[in-house]
């Protein structure tokens, strides 16, 4: 039976009241519902991105008291931080994976800037600190850039790739858009060398996630960072309700969710809690 890695991204970019205890409780319930990984950003108490890891470390410590979910911390997000500041989570020993952005793109009214010199710096920090990279692709040309980076830095196999759709200004969240991104990945990499996943901004239904699973996705990311919709008419107050729904859909496809340790084995993460 095929197993899917479910990642929860529990904190909305618009959240202005960061409460580590509340986040940790919700993440634990997501873990119980089938999440193997948690995706977080370093934020201050008012939700702004920051190089200061104090609140993030408190949040991860509280999560670790409850469960062994894989901890992934972002090196991205639209902000005025320098790349050196964005890479601070790469140095933390309690971080197992980092998200990696390999190009610039319009996101709504903002421009998400990732010049290639910054990308190269970020790749080096991730690998020099023995972290796993999850590369986020917002446009098909980024798959070509990732291939060029792989030729220079030799990414470990399998490569974890998140196909991100649905933001204003980037690849639309449609079947055709997903097919286009997947084709771009397979034009540049052997299928056995990659695990690609689904991430949909502003999701209101589950149709594209179902299509992604049917067409080969090995991971899905769900959570308030992307959407709090359980259905077009129903928004929820807790991430675990979304994870429960995602798990239900995965099982309806005769698949199962991975445990954190199964995800670590797949990605080659040495367990360090």
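^ Assign residues to that structure.
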């Amino acid at each position: 039976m095929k197993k899917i890695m479910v990642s929860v991204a529990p904190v909305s970019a618009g959240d202005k009241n960061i409460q580590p205890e509340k986040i940790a409780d919700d993440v634990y319930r997501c873990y119980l519902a089938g999440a193997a990984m948690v995706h977080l950003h370093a934020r201050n108490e008012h939700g702004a991105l920051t190089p200061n890891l104090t609140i993030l470390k408190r949040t991860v410590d509280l999560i670790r008291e409850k469960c062994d979910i894989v901890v992934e911390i972002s090196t991205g997000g639209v902000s005025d931080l320098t790349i050196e500041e964005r890479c601070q989570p790469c140095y933390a020993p309690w971080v197992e994976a980092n998200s990696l952005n390999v190009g610039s793109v319009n996101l709504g009214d903002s421009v998400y800037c990732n010049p290639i010199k910054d990308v190269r710096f970020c790749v080096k920090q991730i690998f020099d600190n023995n972290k796993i990279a999850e590369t986020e692709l917002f446009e098909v040309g980024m798959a070509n850039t990732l291939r060029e980076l792989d030729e220079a830095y030799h990414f470990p196999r399998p490569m974890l790739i998140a196909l991100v759709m649905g933001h204003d200004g980037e690849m639309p969240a449609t079947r055709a858009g997903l097919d286009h991104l997947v084709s771009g990945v397979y034009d540049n990499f052997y299928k056995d060398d990659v695990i690609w996943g689904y991430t949909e901004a502003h999701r209101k239904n589950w149709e594209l996630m179902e299509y992604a699973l049917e067409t080969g996705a090995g991971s899905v990311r769900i959570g308030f960072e992307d959407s709090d919709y359980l259905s077009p008419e129903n928004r929820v107050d807790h991430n675990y309700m979304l994870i429960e729904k995602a798990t239900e859909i995965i099982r309806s496809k005769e698949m199962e969710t991975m445990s954190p340790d199964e995800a670590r084995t797949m990605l080659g993460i040495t367990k360090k809690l």
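The domain at 3-263 is CATH 3.20.20.70 (TIM Barrel).
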